[in-house]
Write a structure and sequence with these properties.
This protein is an alpha/beta fold and 320 residues long. It has two domains: 6-65 and 205-316, Rossmann fold; 71-185, Adenine-specific Methyltransferase, domain 2 (Orthogonal Bundle). The chain is 35% helix and 16% strand. The protein has helices at residues 6-9, 25-28, 48-51, 67-78, 81-94, 100-103, 119-135, 140-153, 178-191, 242-257, 276-285; strands spanning 36-41, 57-64, 196-200, 216-219, 261-270, 273-274, 288-292, 299-301, 310-316. Strands 1, 2, 3, 4, 5, 6, 7, 8 and 9 form a nine-stranded mixed β-sheet that branches. Strand 1 (36-41), helix 3 (48-51) and strand 2 form a beta-alpha-beta unit. The longest helix has 17 residues, at 119-135. The radius of gyration is 20 Å and the shape is globular. Mean pLDDT is 87; it is low at 1-7, 230-236 and 295-308.
Length: 320
């Protein structure tokens, strides 16, 4: 793999997905094999990892069970940057939302209170937009751009749907600003002419793929001992349970038995909780474990019995 400064050159995604690995690229990607024919991002989320290995692999397949997320990634891939921005600005205008990129900050300054940003100004229009989005029968591409606008204005820019499939994030303090536009531009430029596919499915679909020894699978699933939104049973997708964890590990066992290399991101311990299912699986298979520095500075190999308050790791079924 070419030695580059990923912090300066990585392809950014405009999606602030829970568990986003964009700040950990310098630690994770160098662990991957130097020769990859096809790269499978098995629980891709915002696709930060999949987007940034495309220079070293012939094909990338990004898989996720969140249909609106995959449809949004597909829309961002297929639609031109100008058409996405034009439609987004049309939506912003229609729902009377703030537009600091075109109108500047000073126009909205009277509505800013403390650290709440543009919440006060956007609350009414945002809630109308959210209601429209949840009740509309728009075509997929157009609806995905509505979702992109919602994500730009919602709390923490997170994508979350309730058990009825309705987008339910409250209004946030930002808008469709220069930072989001820059990430959109980075995504569009980086993905241009690349062989990358976004695939809606459960992670176990990889069992159906015809994989060879030069293919590589990366997986960043929901973390069993996390309190993230994907572990909330009120969300659209069922909470990540011990059953799901065991299904995932069985799938990775299947790949390993076929001679397919993989890397798995996860957390072994956090705030007194331990993922004993994962730990026993690692010990049973004698897999390599790389500790990820929580503050995103560096990573190093350690023994499995190292103790810490929070232990984020990458698990490998091959020698790095």
């Amino acid at each position: 793999m070419t030695n580059i400064n990923l912090f300066d050159n990585y392809i950014k995604t405009p999606l602030n997905y829970t568990g986003n690995k964009s700040r950990l690229l310098e630690q994770i990607i160098p662990l991957f094999p130097k020769k990859i024919n096809r790269f499978i991002d098995m629980c891709c989320g915002g696709a930060s990892i999949g987007l940034n290995v495309i220079n070293q692999s012939q094909e990338v397949v990004c898989i996720d069970i969140n249909r609106p997320l995959i449809e949004l990634l597909q829309t961002l891939q297929l639609f031109s940057e100008n058409s996405i921005i034009s439609k987004a600005e049309e939506i912003i205008y229609s729902f009377n939302l703030s537009d600091t990129f075109n109108k500047g900050y000073s126009v909205y300054k009277p509505y800013v209170e403390g650290n709440n940003g543009f919440k006060k100004y956007n609350k009414n229009g945002y809630e109308k937009l959210r209601t429209f989005f949840n009740s509309s029968q728009l075509e997929t591409g157009e609806k995905s751009i509505y979702l992109l606008v919602l994500l730009s204005f919602c709390f923490n820019n997170d994508i979350r749907f309730n058990s009825s499939g309705k987008f339910n994030m409250p209004v946030g303090k930002t808008d469709f600003n220069a930072s989001i536009r820059e990430k959109l531009h980075s995504f569009k430029q980086g993905i241009k002419n690349k062989n990358i596919k976004f695939y809606f499915s459960d992670f176990s679909v990889v069992k159906e793929f015809e994989l060879s020894e030069n293919d590589f699978v990366y997986c960043d699933p929901p973390y069993l001992i996390s309190n993230a939104v994907y572990n909330n049973s009120n969300c659209q997708h069922s909470a990540w349970t011990e059953y799901q964890e065991e299904r995932l590990l069985d799938t990775l066992d299947f790949l390993s038995q076929k001679g397919i290399r993989f890397a798995l991101s996860n957390i072994l311990s956090k705030e007194g909780a331990n993922n004993t299912i994962l730990q026993k699986w690692i010990e049973k298979n004698n897999f390599s474990v790389v500790d990820i520095e929580y503050h995103y500075r560096s990573s190093s190999y350690h023994k499995i019995n190292r103790k810490s308050n929070e232990r984020e790791v990458v698990i490998l079924n091959y020698d790095n």
